[in-house]
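We give the entry.
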Amino acid sequence: MLGEYPIRGRGAAEISASVERAVGAGELEPGQLLPPMRELAERLGVNPNTVAAAYRTLRERGVIETHGRRGSRVRAKPATTGREYIRVVVPSGVRDVANGNPDPALLPSLAAAFTAAGEQSDRAPVLYGDATVEPELARIARADLDADGVPDGPVVVTAGALDSVERLLAVHLKPGDAVAVEDPGWGGLLDLVPALGLRMVPVGVDDQGPAVEDVRQALAAGARALIVTDRAQNPTGAVVSATRARALRSVLREYPETLLIEDDHGYRIVDQPLRPLAGVTRHWAFVRSVAKAYGPDLRLAVLTGDAATVDRIRGRQRLGSGWVSRLLQRAVVRLWTDEAVDTRAVASAYGRRRDALIDALAERGVEAHGRSGLNVWIPVPDETGAVARLLHAGWAVAPGARFRMNAPPGIRVTIATLTQEETGPLADAITSAVGSESARTYA
């Protein structure tokens, strides 16, 4: 082991950093066994307690896992090796339908919104000690939440959906706790959870949302938190239906101490109704971000939840960034109130593009999923082969490995910029790449 990669350091921080660098560089591979603590301590000339402290840090960061006398190994999917690296390099001339981005042509102009926000800030500069949430943003956000049936609760602003989830998990859980997550699910989240030293418990997903029995089993096994995407689930496009929502609420009532986190990142680009689950557990949070509707560079999300949870988020925020720029918040208010920004038309455009591809694939005998959002999920018998064949045919799709743990293989196609003229050729290429009969019978 030490000959293959010379783990270095005299202090616990140096040793853990050395191991983490090796994992990130691929010199220590997922599943690889680390030296026993006493052996490593002897080779490095340090106290075994120093190595023990280094290994503990690595466990808490989600880099390694320890199984008693069987020793410590690099995690199968260590947090250090982010899923963002599981991607296809798109050569020149290849059509990119893998990136997950919204259509730039459907994003509103930001110039007027930021000009108005800047003028407002000139008149009323935000100073230290001022309110951290723009009053008008809180009013509009709360009114929309009320209209969608989200329980009453205070509002806080964070720097995006993933920032919200990270803060929520950090203030409620401790390293080693289990979190139930959707499988397949958002790659960024699947990186984040182990990076916080938490264990992931996969929950299957179908078109109606998380599988009820999987959620029940995860909570019964001790998962302390459940993260659900209500609409535009990434990568499958699932939408929590009314029937599924009732069943999930029933399960959550049996486990009232569960931290429930709902992600509604499809807010204002989705043409499906919201069926919130919040309100049946003691601690809950509901998050809405603006990146998909107004552009990924607008790092802003609105979070509401029970009073204790929101107070914890505010407290941690005060000790760090302090607040999300009120200038940015004021610009979002302008976008929300601009009558020229037709989010219903945007949602309809994405819906037509999704449906066109799904229908074209169905005509060719290929199963595909995508009830909402920017993506279509296609089960495949051979994920690596399908991605490679599509790339050769001139189409770059996202490999399902970025989004899944125990779920069967698949590929994700982003339809955000897909034109009517491209739909048929893409469907033909997918059919050729996966094989219509295999795709139809694959489960």
